[in-house]
Specification:
Elements (H helix, E strand, L loop, with lengths): L11 H5 L12 H6 L29 H14 L10 H5 L6 H5 L34 H14 L7 H5 L13 H16 L3 H16 L2 H20 L7 H20 L10 H12 L3 H10 L2 H18 L8 E2 H7 L2 H17 L7 E2 L4 H9 L7 H4 L3 H14 L8 H13 L10 H26 L7 H15 L5 H4 L3 H9 L4 H12 L10 H19 L6 H11 L2
Protein name: Zn(2)-C6 fungal-type domain-containing protein
Subcellular location: Nucleus
Keywords: Nucleus
């Protein structure tokens, strides 16, 4: 498929964001739609060369010095390896390459530390030819291009402008790999992260740091290859599934090796915790766990969490046998420690399984306000869309479920009913206004699902309880008021699973089913996303056959039926 050349007379804003410009005057249509300043900065030629075609100035390369430095580092660290020549087509391109274009030039990536990789994965970081075709099959190709055509320009918040850099257009230079990696991460963030703009700058710094290290560069490029495909097609086919398998195998191996070592706390105070944090940060990072959800069964994801649990525990400050202080973890810990704890709580909520650890949660509205005020520097709402205050409340409800008499304590239940509506949720005002409205709706859907969880999980109510019915109706009213689409539907799936257990009317079930299964990644069999929704279908089918309404324990049975866990 022939790629169209970009305009050489586009406006400054479009060039900076690497977007096609319609060259409208005085403002182009894209800038008008995005409500950003629009201007044209034409190159001034001397009068003696007036025959040259008029052009606007290219976008500034804000990280030119960084790329130059990285080029020197790569050249010095890989001087023994000869660089493969860059494709002539690549050298003639004058703008950031799309992920699809980069995919056709992956043979230019060489000189990377990949000695420990299985031979089947060397093709993704070196010039080794592969047996499988680089392009999808005809049917898949049509779907992929259709999705890409729709989403190529869909970047209303300018994530590419923040993350991406222009490749150096010279032959035989290896630093073009970094722009490829950043482009892949940007596309993945747009389709997978709730608030990508919130973490775009931090993500770029982390990627550049990982790429500059021999120890992490290969893994960074491997993840980028998976992100490139998922960002375009919302699925990962058999050509790149081995990458995810390899990455998760590395996590398991690192965790096993660390667990086998005797804790070093007796030798140097705090050393064992530091080593555990290093393992979490270097292997069990957010991106690997997120990619696993879309590529591997629920059982595999639960197994990985289970194998990493001892490492997570040794990274926490509490002495053995003591419950973990969840607010402290979410407020003060590193990203991957926070992520493990949040995923532990959420996995319990969406499967009916117990959490891997007991958490201490001194819940109060003051604590919720503290979390709200600190979300600029902590929390994980930006990733999945669930407010961190609700993570805290879920863990608190889980702990109350183990206290005799808590489920019938009317004063306690009334307090939670009063507190839930008063929890303030952060509302971002930056970026696209339609996205802001959708994000607000997602978080309010979580509030309704929290009421359902309170009544069904703690109080033991069934789906026909008036309190559950009222919360479920509010949830459905909000969902039906949101225009269907990938965003926000991709972030509504988790609260839809909770609400789905309480949904009895077939027309409401059809609405939820359609919203979830219109998301391509949730239609792929034997992936965690599809397995999670199949739990709801299993509950509906069983209660229909047995002629009764659902109770919360049905979710645990469905999880075991679907995943064996």
């Amino acid at each position: 498929m022939t790629m169209s050349r970009r305009s050489t007379t586009g406006c400054t804003a479009c060039k900076k964001r690497r977007k096609k410009c319609d060259e409208g005057k005085p403002q182009c249509q894209r800038c008008l739609t995005s409500r950003i300043p629009c201007s044209y900065d034409f190159i001034e030629y001397p009068s003696s060369v007036a025959h040259l075609v008029q052009r606007t100035r290219p976008a500034p390369r804000s990280v030119a010095e960084l790329l130059a430095s990285l080029s020197r580092d790569l050249a010095s660290s890989n001087s023994s390896n000869s660089a493969l020549p860059v494709s002539p087509n690549l050298s003639e391109t004058v703008d950031v390459l799309s992920p699809i274009h980069f995919a056709s030039h992956q043979q230019s990536f060489s000189g990377l530390s990949s000695s420990r990789l299985p031979p089947g994965l060397l093709q993704w970081v070196t010039g080794v030819s592969r047996d499988t075709p680089t392009q999808p099959t005809s049917v898949t190709s049509q779907v992929a291009w259709s999705f890409h055509d729709d989403c190529e320009d869909y970047d209303p918040e300018g994530i590419h402008a923040v993350l991406c850099t222009a490749p150096t257009m010279h032959r035989n230079l290896k630093e073009n790999t970094l722009p490829f990696v950043l482009q892949c991460y940007a596309q993945w963030a747009i389709v997978s992260v709730f608030e990508p703009l919130k973490i775009a700058h931090t993500m770029k710094e982390q990627v550049v740091q990982q790429f500059s290290s021999e120890d992490t560069r290969t893994r960074c490029i491997l993840m980028a290859n998976v992100m490139e495909m998922f960002g375009r097609q919302l699925v990962v086919d058999e050509t790149r599934l081995p990458i995810v398998t390899h990455l998760t195998s590395e996590v398991r191996a690192s965790c096993s090796s660390f667990i086998a070592l005797w804790p070093s706390e007796s030798l140097v105070p705090g050393l064992d915790k530091q080593n555990a944090m290093r393992i979490l940060d270097s292997t069990l990072e957010v991106r690997i766990m997120t990619l696993q959800i879309y590529t591997q069964p629920m059982a595999a994801c639960i197994q990985l969490m289970e194998e990493a649990a001892p490492v997570f525990r040794r990274a926490c400050s509490e002495p053995p046998g003591q419950a973990l202080n969840l607010p402290n973890i979410l407020l003060e810990s590193g990203l991957n420690l926070r992520h493990y704890a949040s995923v532990d709580v959420m996995t319990s909520t969406l499967t009916g399984r117990p959490t891997f650890f007991k958490y201490y949660v001194p819940f109060s509205l003051e604590l919720c306000e503290q979390i709200l005020q600190s979300q600029e520097n902590s929390g994980l709402r930006w990733l999945h869309g669930v407010p961190d205050q609700f993570i805290i409340m879920i863990a608190w409800i889980n702990s109350l479920c183990e206290i005799p008499g808590a489920s019938t304590d009317l004063g306690l239940i009334s307090r939670i009913e009063r507190d839930l509506p008063q929890i303030t949720i952060a509302v971002g005002h930056q970026g696209d206004s339609a996205l802001c409205i959708g994000r607000m709706a997602v978080q309010e859907c979580w509030r309704y699902s929290m009421f359902i969880y309170l009544y069904m999980a703690l109080c033991g109510a069934n789906a026909s309880d008036p309190r559950v019915v009222r919360a479920q109706k509010g949830f459905m009213r909000l969902v039906k008021g949101i225009k269907p689409g990938r965003n926000p539907d991709a972030f509504l799936v988790s609260p839809m699973i909770i609400a789905g257990i309480a949904t009895r009317k077939e027309r409401d079930r059809d609405v939820l089913r359609e919203r979830v299964l219109n998301l391509r990644e949730y239609t792929t069999p034997h992936t965690s996303g599809n397995d999670a929704w199949m739990q709801v279908e299993e509950v509906w089918a069983r209660t229909r056959v047995e002629g009764r309404v659902a109770v919360w324990s049905d979710l645990r049975i469905a999880c075991f039926t679907i995943s064996g866990k």
